[in-house]
């Protein structure tokens, strides 16, 4: 049997510079960073650079990156297409303080992929975009209640883990059971302003919603005149037209973010004309229209990177990537079943894979699995998350599958 203690000792011994950097950071940053998903005991790796589908740590150790910045690094690292486009920024200025043509260009690109986003507003993160989408729905309907779902994650201030989230903004939330029509039905009431849902929950365990469930939410929202919001910050990479396109379900509003910024901070919310026109002073007048501003909304770095990156997101590219992810997930599950190893299971869709740990030793298996893969040059999410990017190939998937096979053998031994 593998020793968790020995694996962690080897990790600590191999990463003295990461340890020192972490201890320095904790003096000024609570927890040593400002993105809690990176937390892992005894300390997280500190990264220095990335290229292709690999990252390199301060200790000059290179890892095949199967986190892909929790879906945001769809293009891999240091992608030359994006890098070359950003050279333009150095000659045109940074913060010009005015409207730029590229805003309309990026809006047209997003609408071409996500047709439900008839009109679009930019902001700087998925969290911010979801906050604005919910606020817009409340104003449009004149109601306050919002239906969300257990283990849903719509940002740091709108999430519903099993333990609850004290940082949630104080909307009148009711929480339904994800992908369960019967337990959701009693919550569909005439005072709902909005229903917000991820077509696949990422932070909630990479759990896909069934088509029948999403179709039910579409019908239910229509019946009570609520706004159906699809949070596709993560799932829009799983099909060229998002999961809504894959399932042929049109929400009233959609939220996107993460990879669509080309590696820079980005979020956007959009939807039906009549909803989004609340922000148009040329229709409603300056006094009656909603005021939405932000210093870095539509900033030149994000616009330039996002437009360049959009050329990499073709139907064929996403189809290849998602087929590769499906192969990894199915093959990994086959390895477990063939060996009778029931302490781990895999879920997901396409390029996003959840790793789940079961039984009395679940916590031990989690740490052993994480540090075993790290020891052999593969980086995954500590919580149990694997994500591919466009620069992964069959060879990189074959290598991590072989490592998973070896882990099972060693653990059983």
TrEMBL record:
PANTHER family: GLUTAMATE-1-SEMIALDEHYDE 2,1-AMINOMUTASE (PTHR43713), GLUTAMATE-1-SEMIALDEHYDE 2,1-AMINOMUTASE 1, CHLOROPLASTIC-RELATED (PTHR43713:SF3). Transmembrane segments: none annotated. It comes from the Eukaryota. The keyword Ribosomal protein does not apply. Belongs to the class-III pyridoxal-phosphate-dependent aminotransferase family. It comes from Orbilia brochopaga. Its cofactor is pyridoxal 5'-phosphate. Keywords: Pyridoxal phosphate. Gene3D superfamilies: Aspartate Aminotransferase, domain 1 (3.90.1150.10), Type I PLP-dependent aspartate aminotransferase-like (Major domain) (3.40.640.10). This is Glutamate-1-semialdehyde 2,1-aminomutase. GO terms for molecular function: pyridoxal phosphate binding; transaminase activity.
């Amino acid at each position: 049997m593998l020793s968790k203690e020995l694996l962690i000792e080897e990790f600590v011994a191999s990463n003295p510079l990461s340890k020192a950097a972490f201890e320095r950071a904790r003096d000024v940053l609570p927890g040593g960073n400002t993105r809690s998903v990176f937390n892992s005991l005894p300390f997280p790796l500190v990264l220095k650079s990335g290229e292709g589908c690999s990252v390199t740590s301060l200790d000059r150790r290179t890892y095949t990156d199967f986190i892909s910045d929790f879906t945001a690094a769809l293009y891999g690292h240091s992608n030359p297409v994006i890098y070359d486009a950003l050279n333009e920024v150095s000659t045109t200025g940074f913060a010009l303080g005015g409207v730029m043509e590229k805003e309309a260009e990026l809006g047209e690109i997003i609408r071409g992929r996500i047709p439900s986003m008839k009109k679009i507003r930019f902001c700087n993160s998925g969290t911010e975009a979801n906050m604005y989408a919910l606020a817009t729905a409340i104003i449009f309907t004149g109601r306050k209640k919002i239906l969300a779902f257990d283990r849903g994650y719509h940002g740091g201030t709108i999430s519903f883990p099993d333990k609850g989230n004290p940082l949630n903004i104080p909307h009148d939330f009711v929480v339904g059971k994800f992908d369960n029509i019967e337990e959701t039905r009693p919550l569909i009431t005439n005072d709902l302003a909005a229903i917000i849902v991820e077509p696949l929950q990422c932070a909630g365990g990479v759990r896909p919603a069934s088509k029948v469930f999403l179709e039910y939410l579409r019908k239910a929202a229509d019946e009570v005149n609520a706004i159906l919001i699809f949070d596709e910050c993560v799932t829009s990479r799983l099909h060229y037209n998002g999961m809504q396109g894959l399932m042929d379900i049109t929400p009233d509003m959609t939220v996107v973010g993460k990879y669509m910024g080309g590696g820079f901070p980005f979020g956007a919310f959009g939807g039906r004309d009549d909803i989004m026109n609340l922000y148009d002073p040329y229709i409603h007048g300056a006094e009656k229209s909603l005021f939405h501003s932000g210093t870095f909304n539509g900033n030149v770095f994000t616009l330039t990177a996002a437009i360049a990156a959009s050329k990499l997101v073709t139907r064929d590219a996403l189809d290849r990537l998602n087929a590769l992810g499906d192969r990894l997930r199915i093959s990994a599950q086959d390895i477990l079943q063939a060996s009778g190893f029931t302490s781990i299971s895999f879920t997901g869709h396409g390029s996003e894979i959840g790793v789940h740990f079961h039984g009395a030793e679940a916590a031990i298996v989690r740490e052993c699995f994480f540090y075993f893969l790290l020891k052999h040059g593969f980086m995954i999410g500590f919580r149990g998350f694997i994500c591919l990017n466009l620069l992964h190939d069959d060879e990189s998937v074959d290598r991590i599958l072989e490592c998973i096979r070896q882990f099972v053998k060693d653990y059983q031994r």
